[in-house]
Amino acid sequence: MEETKWERYAALGGFVFVVCNVIGSLLPGGPPSTDDSSVKVASYFKDHAGAIKIGQLLGGLATIGLLWWLGSLWRMMCRAENERPRLAVVAAVSLGMGGVMALLGGAVTTTTALRIDDLAVDPKFFLILSNVMLASAGFFVVAFLGAVSALSYKTKMLPAWTTYLGWLVAALFLVATGGVASESNAFGFLGLGSFLLWCVWIVGVSSFMWKGSATTS
Predict the structure, then answer these.
(1) Model-level pTM?
(2) Which of 84, 98, 199, 216 has the fewest CB within 10 Å, making it most exposed?
(3) Euclidean distance between CA atoms 131 and 137, whole angstroms
(4) Cα-trace Rg, the chain
(5) Residue 141 to residues 101, 128, 205: CA-CA distances in angstroms?
């Protein structure tokens, strides 16, 4: 009973992640295009420095919530694999690595905003670097969603709609990873759309985890 209670509380981490990350991502407004001039890019970092810093802080808090949430998901996956975790390991490692890449991408953006007046190089370099790092995080999200969805399809661990949505989001993220080798803004828009759909998936899984733990407690 004690374990299921804590699993239920940890499921709330998914909601914390979605709220903090969505607010933090949207707070600075739309980022400049890679086609914009260096002056316009620099102006964006100057004008939105405060929002960018708050966004990074919220992103860090969101990561804490996601890790707590992952603890409950890990236990669910381990039970589905009869305590012989394989896909659970893939999911945990992938989500951890993806989170690191995303935070580092945000750190590049925040550092640029903090020291925009001291930059001796084109600020577009750091904009593109951050974009590439965020696109790289997509590879790990694909692996995470693939592992969870595959196990759910096999064991009916989660509702069927979350399984199919997980595969759809994984496919979209995979396409969006083209941003690691291109400056096209289309990959950025696709990545944002994939992220928002992923948030819907996380809310759905978190709701199921909360209700499931409540039923068994």
Answers:
(1) 0.92
(2) 84
(3) 10
(4) 18
(5) 11, 20, 15
How far apart (Å, rounded) are the C-alpha atoms in residues 7 and 3? 6
Using one digit for the tens of pLDDT, what is the confidence trace for 21-44?
999 988 988 889 888 899 999 999
| CA distances to 59, 106, 194 from 136, in Å | 17, 13, 14
Residues spanned by the domain of 139:
2-216
Q: How many residues does the chain have?
A: 217
Q: How far apart are CA 81 and CA 200, in angstroms?
A: 25
51-99 pLDDT, tens digit each? 999 999 999 999 999 999 999 999 999 999 999 999 999 999 999 999 9
20 with 69: CB under 8 angstroms? Answer: no
Instruction: Indicate left, alpha or beta for 193 from its phi (over 0: left) and psi (-120 to 50: alpha).
Output: alpha
Q: Is the dihedral of CA 165, 171, 177, 178 positive or negative?
A: negative
Here the tokens at position 164 are 């199919």
How would you label 142-157 residue by residue, b for 16+ Cβ within 10 Å and e otherwise? bbbbbbbbbbbeeeeb
